[in-house]
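Help!! Second protein's tokens look totally different from the first
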Amino acid sequence: MTSDDLLAAARAWRDDDPDPETRAEVERLLEGNGRGPDLDGLRDRFGATLAFGTAGLRGEMGAGPNRMNRVTVMRATAGLARYLADTGHAGEPVIVGFDARHGSAAFAADAAAVLAAAGFTVRLTDRPVPTPVLAFGVRHLGACAGVQITASHNPPRDNGYKVYLGDGAQIVPPADAEIAARIDAVGPLSSVERAPTGDPRVTRVGTDLVEAYVAAAVDVAPRRSTPDGPPLDIVYTPLHGVGRDVLLAVFARAGFPAPALVPEQSDPDPDFPTVGFPNPEEPGALDLAFALAAERGADVVIANDPDADRLAVAVPSPTRGEWRALTGDEIGILLADWLLDAGHGGDRLVATSVVSSSMLGRLAEARGVAFAETLTGFKWIARAALDRPELRFVYGYEEALGSCVGTLVRDKDGMTAALAFVDLVGAETQRGRSVLDRLDDLARELGVHATAQRSIPFEGLDGLARMRAAVDAVADAPPTALAGEPVTEVEDLRRGGRLPPADGVVLRGESVRLIVRPSGTEPKLKCYAEAVVPVRGGSDEDLTVARAESGARLAAVLEAAVGLVGRP
């Protein structure tokens, strides 16, 4: 794009933009600092367009097509409305929800106005809601689609636009490309009709929807620990997000004591002032929760990310006074084992993603149930259940703290997962054990499965191209060994086959594995490593030796990964 084209695009956007803040942002860039227009700033906003994909839209807020803003949201909604009409859903209900981030309520109102003007009946939430409640609401209200305005655990400056279709699951190909094509065909914003405030086609939903979710959540994860046992002391943080009120309602309905809230993080706050990054996986994010737990002598710490679709857990460490955050794979295998233990039959299904631990597959084989491995993302894990309707879907998870208990929500749900996990903690506590003891039992049975990931950032407009080039390099010239072990299989996920085509390459050895793939939501190349070592005996010493060996192999695989993809 030439400088003249860039300036013309910026002026056209400014003249069309209904938001005074983003209009002013463009005006400042056009004026520059007395030395002419800020071409670099304009190019960053107008030189590219946020891509609509299976994750919908997500990005930094600001002016221009390469940012999240009112214009981007309304054009995306106009394209979605056209897609829904073209696929036979004209006039049907659509549910629209939002979290508590900056701009979320306005974006949701704009989406509702565009959908209503296009002839759809819109159910707009009357408050910020967790993403699982919105996903639940799609099927509960008989909607043909759902839109949630959220950026989940992204930084405060970001926002996003997440789309569900009538089956309650996130979109997958080819729907994403078909919606994107219709968004691209939308003309200037002045051509997009919007219903006025108070239009009768837009009605508010809230209390009844949340109540229906709470009642169903307790049914899908019924309590198995003894209610009259010693009360658990639970510490909970929603990380300044929107999960608090719904999670407390779910716990109360299930008969658990109210968790102690981390006071500095209990209220929704779009600036996330106590954390550098509002992701419970990030170092330091749970420090306040750990401090409160240590003060209370708590039994467990649970945390949701800001839209409450992820669950983090920490438990008291054998080292007195310290807390151990469980990995997503540890939470996943513990919940899978606990939920499978509650039922019977080989017609049950558990699922996880290709980047998660292979331990779930071994557990499924040992328990005589079906297992599905999917591409990364809950759009695929939920699809595993939809694709096998003859099976009873019990549980699915991915290593990034995502869990799905049953089929109540066809997406990750950090609140039902929290309920099930606290029930597990209660049962083990009543037996005089901990969940770490249960992890040890699973390791002795199935082997130690050490997993970790490393993310390498690729910033800038050409970041995506450079990430793909790095994946190309690994696929075209794979190493012959990982951590001193021969590579016996190279699976280029881009070619498809047992899984739909996706960016990424899998390298496998006899006991090690490495997956290299671009993130779907952030400018990062992600490297996922695993090392599996059997426990050669039943003693604590045998387990310690196996863990040490797996840890050393894992570190060597991660070091090899950095060498393969290089530094940006």
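Here's the second one for comparison:
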Amino acid sequence: MDKSTASPPPTPNLGEKAGKDAAAPALYRKRKRSILKRIAIIDIGSNSVRLVVFDELKRMPLPLFNEKVLCGLGRGVEESGKLNQAGVTLALETLKRFAGLTTAMRVSRLDLYATAAVRDASNGAAFIAGIKNIFGRAVKVLSGREEARFAAFGVLSANPRADGVTGDLGGGSLELVELVRGEIGEGATFPLGPLRMQAAWRKGPDAARRVINEHLDHLTWLDQVEGQVFFPVGGAWRSLAKLHMDETNYALHMVQGYAMSGAQALDMARRVSRMDRAQLAGYPSLSHRRLETLAYAALLLEQLLVRMRPSKLVFTSFGLREGALYDRLSEEMQREDPLAAAVADWARHDGRFGDLGTAIANWCAPLFPDETEVEQRLRLAVCRLSDVGWRYHTDYRAEQMLLRVLRAQELCVVHDQRAFIALTLYVRYGGSVRSVKARAACQLLDAAAIKRAEILGKALRVAYVLSGGAVDMLDHTALRIARDELTLALPQEVEVPSGQVLERRLSSLATALDADKFQLLD
């Protein structure tokens, strides 16, 4: 049919009614099957009001929609005892929009949570009543203990074996929770959020420091966690991570999994706590709405670090919202490795031959006899993602996979691990670790990790040209490295003979392994 003369498709009748879905627009009804699992969370904080819509309840849910408005509900609440009136007006307007969005997006479940400012303000109940009128459902006002628990669950959802302390700094409060090998320990909440501390901050850093330490002095276990990891949560502390990235010209602009030593963090916190708004405005990654509270957030971080003396800080973009979802998972699902869960989803949706990860990982295991548990975990993840780039044009597969992994939000790993996965897949699709395009990933890795990525990537190239995605070919062949010689055994029952492409890739793998020679054995 000539497309230029074809009749256009009929315009959906948004007022059409039919059956029990009569109230739903026809356009929505057509998509109902694909959106029934969506879950929405509205987080009504002391500083911001945010809506996040996740694809479904699973180990690593993906945010489909994320919108935040800085309303400043807690501004001045410490002095007046009431929510800021301008903030209330803006928050209710924002929540009306969010109500319309969640209806239009046909979410299957909507949870509303309010935190420190709302629970402490004398007019909090009236504000909650206004929200109930908008949504027709109750709002859960979290206690300090519940808020701390959700924040800790947010960290555990990305770091299931987390050991140390998580600190969630919101506009109105600070929650500190001890994490003991993936379990929640002691916890406390303090009215030390930037908006609650405005009066003290206006009197100067010394006055704010005194108030901070008056509260922290009551936390006896805080000086018993020396040498552990501190997990900062919250927008203000995420901004400090971005500032540090700007200062160091960091290769990857992503807060999730960003790490720095305790000494680096203390130095940064001390410097930033003394900066004025004009100095902070010079950092390109900082939101102008964060500038007025960032110096205080740095001062608070400084006081915590002096007491805790952590070995390092690992920042996370996960917090209360992700923690609330994690709390709803079964214990079995909570125990799942978040990296394994994410790559399994990815492989299932985008894999060409299904999930060949375990078979390929077993096949190439002889090349990595002395790997650690972490290295083995990363190798399996890479193998499970080793064919998800097939839809891209062959000339761009390597680069696309490099960038996709470096920027993927569903991978909850620290940055050197993310870079290893990305670089390995770059090599798997023909890229070189010495190319300019690989520079960002290589900057995050040491020489040994780069070498390992090159070997694994080239082994994957051999695996796919050898097998064509057929598991039986992997099961009936064997890859070995011994006495500086790489050997690929092709038993007689294997009916697919070797060829030039296989031999070239095997030779390239031998070079990466520093093997003097390679051979194919029939």
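Reply: Different proteins will give different token patterns, so don't panic. The chain is about 45% helix and 15% strand.
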